[in-house]
Amino acid sequence: MCPLYDKDGNKIKSSDPRDTPNFGGPFLALLLVPALLL
């Protein structure tokens, strides 16, 4: 996977979103909210 960054611009090494609360930022939130509602 490509390097991912949190909202503070810090590189996130883990590919598991559960390990990093800021993982993916707002974009991931847009994906997670509908998934949680289903």
UniProtKB/TrEMBL annotation:
Biased composition (Basic and acidic residues): 1-19
Organism for this UniProt entry: Streblomastix strix
Protein name: Uncharacterized protein
Region (Disordered): 1-24
